Amino acid sequence: MTTDDRPQTVVNRPSSIVNPMTQKHTIILQPSGSRGQVEEGMSVRSAARELGVEIESICAENATCGKCMVLIEEGRFEKYNIDSKQENVSPVSTEEAAYFARRPKLLKDKGWEVGQVRLSCQCKIQGDVLINVPEESRGNKQIVRKSATERAIEVKPSVRKYLVTMTPPNLERPIADWERLAKGLETSMALVRGTEEKLPRWYELNIDYQCLRSLSSTLREAKWNVTVSVWQDKEVIEVQAGYVEDSYGAAVDIGSTTVALYLCNLRTGEMLAAESEMNPQIVYGEDVMSRIQYAIENKDGLEKLHKAIISTLNKLLKQAVKSANTRTPEEIASGTSTPRNDMKVEEILEMVLVGNSTMHHVLLNLHPKDLGLAPFVPTIHKSMDIKARELGLHINPSGNIHVLPTIASFVGADTSAMIVAEEPHKQDENWLLIDVGTNAELILGNRKRLVCTSTPTGPALEGAHVEYGMRAAPGAMERIEINENTLEPKYKVIGVTGWNTEHAEFKGQVKGICGSAIIDGVAELFRAGIVDSRGKFKTGLESTRIRKGESGWEYVIAWAEETSIGRDIPMTQQDVRQIQLAKAALFTAARTLLNRSGLESPDKIILAGGFGSYIDKEKAMLIGLIPDCELENVYAVGNAAGDGARIALLNVEKRNEIDEVTRKVERFELPTDPEFQNQFMLATSFPHMSEPFPHIAHLIPNRVADPMAKNFMGK
């Protein structure tokens, strides 16, 4: 069957808002050939998503990034039996017109006209239409960089298995099935009654209702010889026939951009599989504030966000079990146990979930509206234990879902997990932990005192609001260097080995710039003297790469013939400004914590998160993204939140420990700091308007004091 022969898809809106009189129209998406019937008024991007075609967008559909451009084809298409024309979509919006008005060269170079080219997030279906999705607008699967790290974890799971052999009931001792099992567990669990206790210890045991419903049949089919899974040594959650040795659990880090799941053996601690995927909530907003706003503005907004993440978790659980069942003999041999090849998702008995405060609320189906309104109060801080069936997760329905505590308004359970993994509360030195992302979360301190804060850095560090920014996907530059003598660049691209200067395979490979390369690019522009400390382009330099573009001065990293989009890829003055704003917010948050702790600099900086692990620490310090510190004491630790979740899954004592620690963490809300604005302005310069940054001073030997600094330094 060819692509064009496949059956059409009918896309419907949720039944609660469907108008039975609404017309449906045919939409055909090329080059994929996907087609279907969609309701009138649906945006092209939404329709494409429903038909399985991803169109890039990183501005939460606010018509600012321009990465979702599509072409409306005109004419009669007999093959599809439709007449496609521009009148069959909504008129060009004010936002679209403004976007294209700022980029006349883009339209001229491509030979496009406004009306023919549209932003798919704004363009609404009003008739049959054939749409071409250009190469630069096609969504790529992001490279999800949230792999687990090797850690020594003391295994003390909350779920333990006990073998119980019972005497069958008879007329002389017709004891109820649960009491018979509980008395057997009293022996297996070595529950010894104290002399002062009036009731036997097995009276303290409970059994989950779902498990109780199948108890009688299980006991008889097993001939009264069963393995009992007990949670926290107080509740029976599974009864299995015969002897069963292993139990399984999953740890999950729910990030704003990506979701990472780790499947573990609860007896041995071995990680059996790791799966990750983009957070599906991205289609409703790139950052936490836009998702909160979506939930507020749409009656079914929270329901959509909640169902999206639950669906993805169930998908990842299924994938993880499949991966564990199909591991190679070499992989199995390297582990501490051999999983059965018929493991089922229902055999997972516990999950530990972490995420920022917004992800935490959406996961638990708690409305996040009050997180988005002053004084930014969450519904709950303390950790929670919830039955899997209550959340709709497809593990054992009696299984437990443990959610780590949140700490402050926007310092969530992922930060609690980071503390579990890195243990700053057990150190004498002052450590600064930073989870870098669209919302950065920071912890500073030692065993005596921990302080925390958070700051929105904006999505620029992950590619949004940067002209050619994109997520970490094939075709994205991930490293950039500029020769300070020739002012010529070289770069590395995801999916291609080596630097572009090393071989000709780079021709036609480049599509955009991802976050790590954006930081590299700005740092290199500054180091090579192309931009000054205030981020302004120097215009007197001799290089064809430095030119005046549509929105001001820019530096061309890749010429059109090197790209897959047929256009030059520059870093613009506006791109530099976006990074200045993002890095100033992060640095100011760190400086605020240092000042509140009476410190000039931390003893160690730990960069966490998938994005933080791919930042070049020297270049991050060069632009002032992080405070000055001995470079050898700046570490990237990978997905510390995911590692912390895994530790809490395998060691129940860590849950009690983090509950106690988070209650003592001091919280600072940056908007209440009277010095925030002045500190922010000082931090917009590279690396800073007034701080010396001695550990990277050799990279900027001719640095001079900025006369503007005194305006923001107070006394």
Describe this structure in words.
The strands form 7 sheets. Strands 1-3-2-8-4-7 form a 6-stranded mixed sheet, with no helix packed on it. It contains 19 helices and 30 strands. 26% of the residues lie in helices and 21% in strands. The chain is an alpha/beta fold and 715 residues long. A hairpin with a 3-residue loop joins strand 11 (225-231) and strand 12 (235-241).
Keywords for this entry:
715 residues, alpha/beta, 6-stranded mixed β-sheet, 26% helix, globular, disordered N terminus
Widest beta sheet: strand line-up:
1-3-2-8-4-7
Oligomerization: single chain
Radius of gyration: 29 Å
Q: Give the overall shape.
A: globular
The total strand number stands at: 30
Average pLDDT works out at 87
Largest sheet: 6 strands, mixed
Number of helices: 19
How is this fold's topology laid out?
Layout: E1 9-10, E2 24-30, E3 34-39, H1 44-50, E4 69-73, E5 75-77, E6 82-84, H2 94-101, H3 104-110, E7 117-119, E8 129-132, E9 159-165, H4 177-188, E10 206-207, H5 209-213, H6 215-221, E11 225-231, E12 235-241, E13 248-254, E14 258-265, E15 271-278, H7 288-297, H8 301-325, H9 329-334, E16 348-355, H10 357-363, E17 384-387, H11 388-391, E18 400-403, H12 413-422, E19 431-435, E20 439-445, E21 450-456, E22 476-482, E23 489-493, E24 512-513, H13 515-527, E25 546-549, E26 552-558, E27 569-572, H14 573-596, E28 604-608, H15 609-612, H16 617-622, E29 634-636, H17 640-650, H18 652-664, E30 666-667, H19 676-683
